[in-house]
Structures are given as structure tokens and as C-alpha cells.
Amino acid sequence: MIRQPFLDGWTVGPKLGAFEAPTPESAPRSVRLPHDAVRDLPRSADSDQGVHTGYVPGGVFEYAKTFDVPDDWREKTVRLEFEGVYRDAVVFLGGDAVTHEPNGYNAFEAVLDPYLRYGEPNRVTVEARAHRDSRWYSGAGIYRPVHLVVADPVHIPLDGTRVTTPDIDEDRAVVELATTVRNASRHTRTLRLTWTLHSPDGSDVASGTAPVTVLPGTDAVARVRLAVDDPSLWSTDAPVLYEARTALATEAGDVIDTDAAAFGIRRLQVDAARGLRINGATVKLRGACVHHDSGPLGAATFAAAEDRRVRLLKAAGFNALRSAHNPMSRAMLDACDRHGVLVMDELTDTWTRSKVAFDAAPSFPERWRHDIAALVAKDVNRPSVIMYSIGNEILELATPAGSAWSRRLAEEVRAHDDSRFVTNGINGIIANLGRFREAGGDEASESAAADPNTMMATMGDMMARANASELVTASTEESASVLDVVGFNYAESRYELDREHFPNRVIVGSETFPSRIEQMWELVERLDHVIGDFTWTGWDYLGEAGIGRVDYPDEPGYTPTGTAGPYPHLLAGCGDIDITGFRRPVSYYREIVFGLRTDPYLAVHPPRHHGRLTATTPWGWDDTVSSWTWDAAHGAPVTVDVYAPGDEVELQLNGVSLGVAAVGAEKTFRACFETRYRPGELVAIARTGGSEIGRCTLRTAGEVGLAASVEESEVPVDGLGFVAISLADADGVVAVDADRLVTVTVAGDAELVALGTGRIRTEESFSGPSVTTHDGRALAIVRPTGPGVATVTVTADGLAAASVSLTVS
After folding, report:
1. pLDDT digits (tens, 9 = 90+) for 337-384
2. Is 161-263 in CATH node 2.60.40.10?
3. For the chain: N or C, fewer Cβ within 10 A?
């Protein structure tokens, strides 16, 4: 069998109708997959997709590639495996339609056999489209990897081997394997499957074999149960992975196909008295919701970028991710398996009622079984996946029809995989929009009609009362009852209430406001039936532009706009980590709330905004930056926040005490100081019972220059290089108040594929080669073009250039 990446040699351009004449603007251009067709399109305030996509337009796009088809493929089956095409993908070969996949997140196969022209070049084209079909930035195009597979007509299809571990003891685990064999020939075939399990060190730990007879044009499933002695269990602290290797051979012993699947051995349990247990140990989910885009890369999915996101999120204190609101990429799932991060993988944002004009709701009644099968097939072997979410804030959930759909979907998931838990992100208010006057009042009802995000942001305490109302209790009871774990979005007011009303109910905070994490986590820790919290969001994202922004109402021309950020807002602005991978102050506050950090953290309000009122949303934080380098006059007033555990914090400047403040006087885990800006060294010392438990130091930057550093000096040829750019002194202290335009060039065996910052309001492109730093920082991402060496050089007017090199292997 041949299975190889099918990423190079593609072109992309606008899809033209049969009677449309090409123009210079529509000329196809060369691209390498994965690729996001809309990332670099011109943005404008009058984009018909508006704030949802960050004012990025949609479109219809055609990808094309010509490849050779030798004569000796006549006796083979040839297919393309697409991990995801957004959206309504149609694959053509030589102008003939091969397959159609409406769901932009499903993996699918295009079997090319009926349309191939042997002994000559063949042209494959793929149509993709995006237009007012999502409430966030979706991207468009062939944004996930593609593989070309040339196999025997009798073969193991995509996701053909399923591995489960239904029986685990301390000294032994049973691994159950089920392999599908597909016969695309005209003859009945009897073959032999051999399975071998490999331990993390590569040694064989168990094996088995079985014959399998497959009738023409059908699939057959062969199974085996293998025992592994003294198994090493997978957990978040020890993400041990085994591998199942499968060989399909003829009766003569010739191997005609192989398959490999990584898996982990772990046991899941959940109940209202002991919460979630993994391998018998209780686990509280320190969760983050994440969208599928990769910031400066747009929606293009690269394994290196997904691995980096997972690593940085775990380093920031998260042990679980919720894929919102669509199935997670295979690359991110691989990273979660490797790094020990738990996953709630979500099916969809809509069922039968639309949220935006051209979303997937109209086809849902015909496609739901197919979509569930695709989700489970992708996830079933992965130890990181512990929950399937069947939806998010479903509009019809509180109706009789919605209850029936809830049950139907949950049971279909269980029919495919009953080894994991089923949940749903329930928002009781959104599920009752039609009856909202009764539950929430006229003012909130009017805002709901305009924008649900604005409604939730403006309701305040009314939202908690509405979620705890009898209306929500009664109307969502059946839909909640079909779940193993009830996910609540912004409904912490139900946590204690449901312990009384529904004593067997297990709850997870499937989506919560980041500004209230200290309240959420206290409930999670105190209540056994509440198994965790998923903040919105762990990593900032494109679209839903400005929902976490900080505004200054005294700005000339300021007009309240609800949660919708006016153009040119591009990012949501609500991530603990910004789109470049830089941790924002809220991330350190959360780490302290989680009990993972004893050192305090210094968060300084910019002196230039001192005394100004701010307007924020519940998804936002504030305007603080961890810096003591400011373009401010000596003696300028400045507010300093210190996040800390313990009882009190002392603040020192240049060795002189500025006083002691109690922790938690205004907000849990925070002490606040009013002082004057003077360059030097600012130190916060946290104490409990008079004893120091940790300290944090900020220093004023000296002479500032350009700095560049590569995260990994050696990059695989199919990987990415991440180059951090900063305006910093010789000790690495960044000047956050002196942003300037920087330009990046790449020489050698790589190319610049993305350049960006965490600034949420910008008109600059991610395609480079120049960008204005934000808080003194930027990130360049380079992609190898072959093995060798690449040099990345950063320049800025008036500063010496900075260069870094990386080896491509």
C-alpha cells in the first residue's frame, strides 16, 4: 500500500461559473496544503459576514492539482483521504463529480477508481465555500491535511481499526481490537489479519491472528481480545501510549495492507457522589474551550501548531479541552494523547434550528447519523477523549421535539461508542428564547432578539436567576436526563440547586465566564457532582470579534456596541493565551485559583490610562500588563494589581516598601495598590500567617533593541518554526510601551507563512512581511521547503537587525 501526503502542487482561485469569464484577480495561485483560502482576503467594515468572522469575507474556491496515474494502478484502488474541507466540499476528477461532503469538519474519502485515466496525468479539483454559515471565523478551503492512498482492492479503510480496553485490572488489561476489511474487488477473498501490540518502548506485549472472508463489495469486521500483563495506564500525569499494528495478508502470506493505531489503557467512571474518576482517582477538569483556528495561520491545521497549543495550554494549568463547537482536528487529538490532556469533543453548534443564515441546520435531519459516525470513528481509539458533546446552546432543546432529538443523538453516539460519556452544552436561557419574557423580563428579551452574546453580557444577576428558574428546570429536564454528564453554559446558579432537584445528576461547567473563575472553581472544588469548568476561552481566536475587549468610554466617538467589536476588530480578545501563544494576566490569575502557583503575579494598569473608566464584558479581563517599563513621566500615578494566594502582599519599589495590602479585599486572590511610576525594580511578596510563600519581580528595561528567538532550533521538514520577536534589552526585559513596525525575511530552506501579534483590533495582514508589535511582541511562523538551514531576520527602523537560524531535518 502507498499512503503519502498529497499537499504540494495545488493551485487555488475563486470558483467561476461555466459562463463566467476569468479576470486577472481570479487567476489561480500556487499553494501548499493545508491552506485557508480566506485568511488573506481584504477585510472591510461592510463585510456581509461582519463581526462573526472578524469582518473577513467568504467565498467559493476551487483547488486543483494534476498528478500522474501509472498503468500499474489498474489493479489497485486509489483514493484521497481528506481530514477536513470547509465547507460543502465537492471533489471532481477530470471534471467528473466523485463525492460531496457538506460538513466542513468531517474526514472523508474520495474513491477515484471509476474516473481515473491510466497512463496519463489526471486533474483533481476540490470546491469549497464559506458564507454566513458560522458564528465565528471558520476559514475555508482544504484546511486540513490530505493523503493519497493506493491500495489493494481488499484493504483496511480509513479509521478501520478500533481499539478499546473494556477490562482492566492492576496486573492485566484486555485490549479488544476490531478491524474492518473492505473488499472492492469482484471476488470473494479469504485473508488473514495479524495484530501486534507494542509497548511504549517498542517491545511486543501481545499478538493474535484470525482469518477473515469478505464478500465482493462488502465490509467484514474481524475481532480479537489480547491480554497485556502489568499494563501502564494512561493518565494526565503519565500519558502512556501503546500501539496496535495490524497486517492484512493473503492466504500465501503476502502482506497487502497494514494499519497502526495509538491507544492508551485507562478506566473511566463518573457518578454524583465521587465525580469523575480516571483509573480510580478523582479528577477535576481544569478546562478550556478552544476554537479550531490557529491564529496567524488562520484555519489551516498544522500538526506542529496544534501540538504547540496543547503544550502551552497544559503548561498554563489546563488539563482538559473542549472543542467548540465542532469536532477537534486529528492533529490536536494526537497532541492531547501525547501530552495527557482530556478532551470533550463536540459534534455541532446547531441541530434543526439555524443560528445564522446559511449554517448546517437545514441538512441536519438527513446528515446527523453520518456526522456522529465520523466523529466517533475519529475519536474512538484516543485515551484523551472522555466525553462526546452532542451540541452547544441548542435553540430547540427545551421543546418536546428538542427532547426527542437529544435522546436520539445520545443513543446514536452510544451505539457507536458506549465507553465514553455523553454531554451537551445546555444554555437554559437560549433554549427558552421564545418564552423569555416570562423568565427574564422585557429589557433582556429585547437584547436577546438582537444578539445572544449581548443578552448574556447585559443580564447580570438576572441571568443567574433565569437559569435557576422553574421554567429552565422543567423545560430542560428531559434533554438533560439523556446525558451522562450535564453540561451547563453560564449556569452555575444551577449547581447547588440541582443537587437537591436531581441528586443523581453529574454536572460540568461546559462554558463559563473567565472573569468569574474564582467563583466557578470554588463550586467545582466543593461540590462532588460538579466535575469541572471550561472557560471561554483558553486560547484567543479569530472572529466573534471584540467580545473580550476593553473599551474606554471617554474616547471621542465612543458608542456602546454590546459585545460586537466594531471594525477593525479581528480577534475575540477573551483567551487566557493570545493567538501567538503568549500568556495574558488572566492566565496567571487562573493558575493561582487552581492552586497550581504559589508565587504572586504582578499585573500593572498602563499609566496612560490611569483614572479612566473602562467598559468590559464578562468574557474580558482588564487592561493590565505584566511590565514595569512605561513611556510615562516619573511620578505618574499607576495602579498595580497583585494576584496571589495567602493573606497579604507587600509591594516594594527599588528596595523601599510601598505598603501591605490584604488579599481578597475586593476580589479573591487579588491585592491592589496605588503608587507612582519610577523606573527600577518592583517586587511583590506574598505571605500567609506572616511567612513568605512567594515573590514576583518586574524590572525596567534598559537600552532596547530587536530580539528574536526560535522555540526549537531543529525543525522536521514537515513541521513549523516559531520565532518569537520582541523589543527587549540585553536581559530580555520587554518594552511594552514602544511598539513599532518590524519586517521579517526568511532565507534558505523555509518560507514565512504567518506573522502576527495578539492585538485584537488591527488592519494588518497575517501574511507579512511586516507587522506592528503589540506590547513589544510578535510571532513569525516559518514552514520548511526542504531539508537544510533557514535564517530568519527581523529588522526595524533605527534598530540593529536580529537573526536566528534553524536546521530543517
Report:
1. 999 999 999 999 999 999 999 999 999 999 999 999 999 999 999 999
2. yes
3. C
DSSP one-letter code for 79: E
Q: Which residues contact 107 (CB under 8 A, 6 or more apart)?
A: 81, 82, 83, 84, 144, 158, 159, 330, 374, 377, 378
More confident residue, 98 or 463: 98
* Grid cell locating 675: 503608587
Q: What share of the chain is helix, strand, coil (3-state, %, to 5)?
A: 20, 40, 40
CA distance 536 to 540: 9
Contact 673, 706 (CB under 8 A): no
- Distances from the Cα of 547 to the Cα of 52, 438, 539, 566, 617, angstroms: 10, 27, 14, 10, 7
> Which pLDDT score is estimated for 465?
85
Assign domain 705-808 to a CATH class.
Answer: mainly beta
Please give the CATH topology (third level) of the domain spanning 320-540: TIM Barrel (3.20.20)
As a whole-number percent, the residues of the chain with pLDDT over 70 amount to 98
Count of alpha carbons within 13 Å of 162, Cβ hemisphere only? 17
| More confident site: 2 or 744 | 744
Is 598-699 in the same CATH topology as 161-263?
yes
Three-state DSSP class for residue 597? coil
Amino acid at 720: L
User: Helix or strand or coil: residue 663?
Assistant: coil
Strand partners, 210: 193
Is the bond preceding residue 325 a cis peptide, omega within 30 degrees?
A: yes
d(CA 103, CA 354): 15
Query: Nearest 5°: phi and psi at 694?
Result: 170, 165
Q: How far apart are CA 175 and CA 505, in angstroms?
A: 31
pLDDT single digits (tens) 609-633: 999 999 999 999 999 999 999 999 9
Provide the strand spans (E) within 397-473: 421-426
- Residue that has been written with the C-alpha cell 465525580 in this structure: 275
Q: Is the dihedral of CA 734, 735, 739, 745 positive or negative?
A: negative
Q: In the chain, what is the greatest distance between 2 CA atoms, to the nearest angstrom? A: 88
Cβ burial 234-253 (10 Å sphere, 16+ → b, else e)? bbbeebbbbebbbbbbeeee
Q: Phi/psi of residue 30, each to 5°?
A: -75, 140
pLDDT in tens, 688-718: 999 999 999 999 999 999 999 999 999 999 9
Helix (H, G, I), strand (E, B) or coil at 94: coil
State the Cα–Cα distance between residues 326 and 390, nearest whole angstrom: 10
What residue ranges do the domains of the chain occupy? 2-151, 161-263, 320-540, 598-699, 705-808
Contact assessment for residue 695 and residue 686, using Cβ atoms and an 8 Å cutoff: yes
CA-based nearest residue to 673, from 644, 650, 698: 650
Alpha-carbon distance of 326 to 396, in angstroms, equals 18
Dist. CA 257–CA 214, nearest whole Å: 15
Q: What was the pLDDT predicted at 449?
A: 47
| Residues with Cβ within 8 Å of residue 465, at least 6 apart in sequence | 493
What pairing do the DSSP bridges indicate for beta strands 189-198 and 172-183?
unpaired
- Rounded to an integer, what distance in angstroms lies between the CA atom of residue 682 and that of residue 172? 56
In the 8-state DSSP scheme, what is residue 407?
Answer: H
CB 172 within 8 A of CB 229: yes
CATH number of 598-699: 2.60.40.10
pLDDT in tens, 545-579: 999 999 999 988 787 767 789 999 999 999 999 99
Q: Which CATH class is domain 2-151?
A: mainly beta
Identify which of 473, 401, 478, 396 has the alpha carbon closest to the alpha carbon of residue 439.
473
Sign of dihedral through CA atoms 219, 222, 223, 228? Answer: negative
Rounded Cα–Cα distance for residues 451 and 269 (Å): 38
